[in-house]
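Lab notebook: predicted structure, single chain.

Context: the supervisor wants predicted structures on file for every construct in the current expression panel, including those that have not yet been purified. This is the next one on the list. No modifications to the sequence; it matches the entry in the shared construct table.
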Amino acid sequence: MSTSDGAYTLASISATMALFRALIKKGVLTRDDAVRAILDEAVARAIQGEAEEQDGGYGRSAGGVNRQSAEILKFLADKL
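Prediction complete. Output recorded below exactly as produced.
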């Protein structure tokens, strides 16, 4: 994963969080639904990271990145 990939990921997460907050504020999305969507993505990334490490597919770095992404998403869901 290159530095620019990380920057795009961070920008994407920031934009998604801003969108979720705006939708919650407008009453279009409940906080519970937003948290559930974020946690679903976190679980999917964690599973993907574990699978990549076990298969040796993308190497340890990709699996580690997906696990770290899952941890970040869980943290953000708690703060939403």
